[in-house]
């Protein structure tokens, strides 16, 4: 799965609506979206499926889109489920750069994770990777 990042000028009124309309019109489902703005720029980070369609649609709308591969993990929905994942990363000196809950369902859920070494993390976390 790809993480899509769009950087915009600050104070772009209606930007979220424009992005949502464009993606919905193409049948894209937004799984996770974060928006941060300071006085100089806005940054929108999202995960959507299908991600290749999302990227194409956003680029067709004139956005510059940066992509990054995301590790998607499946975990049970129970207290402490993230502990073994955190321990594995710690034991292999892999730092977490970001983590987002993509969705939760009865009994489980998926998280998206980025590290300072995604190839090593993919190997270490292979038992948790979503299919």
CATH class of the largest domain: Alpha Beta
Which bin fits the share of residues in helices? 25-40%
**CATH architecture level-2 label of the largest domain:** 2-Layer Sandwich
Q: Which band does the percent of strand residues land in?
A: 35-45%
Net shape? globular
The overall average pLDDT, rounded, is: 91
| C-alpha-based Rg, rounded | 16 Å
Number of strands: 7
**Strand line-up across the major sheet:** 2-3-1-4
Mind telling me the CATH superfamily name of the largest domain? VC0802-like
Largest sheet: 4 strands, antiparallel
> How many domains, in number, for the residues?
2
Separation of the first and last Cα atoms: 11 Å
Describe this protein's structure.
- This protein is of the alpha+beta class and 131 residues long.
- The protein has two domains: 2-69, VC0802-like (2-Layer Sandwich), CATH 3.30.2130; 71-124, Alpha-Beta Plaits, CATH 3.30.70.260.
- 28% of the residues lie in helices and 42% in strands.
- The chain has four helices and seven strands; from the N terminus they run βαββαββαββα.
- It has helices at residues 15-25, 51-60, 83-91, 118-124; strands at 2-9, 29-37, 41-49, 65-69, 71-76, 96-105, 108-115.
- It has a four-stranded antiparallel beta sheet, with helices on one face. Strands 5-7-6 form a three-stranded antiparallel beta sheet.
- A hairpin with a 3-residue loop joins β2 and β3 (41-49).
- The longest helix is centred in the N-terminal third of the chain and has 11 residues, at 15-25.
- The protein is globular.
- It starts with a strand and ends in a 7-residue tail after the last helix.
- The mean pLDDT is 91.
């Amino acid at each position: 799965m790809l993480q899509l990042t769009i950087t915009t000028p600050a104070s772009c009124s209606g930007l979220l609506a424009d992005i949502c309309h464009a993606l919905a019109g193409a049948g894209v489902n937004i799984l996770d979206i974060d928006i941060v703005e300071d006085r100089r720029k806005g940054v929108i980070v999202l995960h959507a499926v299908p991600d290749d369609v999302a990227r194409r649609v956003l680029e067709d709308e004139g956005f510059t889109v940066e992509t990054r591969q995301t590790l998607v993990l499946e975990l049970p929905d129970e207290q402490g489920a993230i502990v073994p994942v955190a321990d594995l990363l710690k034991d292999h000196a892999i730092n977490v750069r970001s983590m987002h809950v993509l969705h939760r369902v009865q009994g489980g859920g998926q998280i998206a994770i980025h590290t300072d070494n995604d190839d090593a993390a993919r190997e270490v976390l292979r038992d948790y990777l979503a299919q």
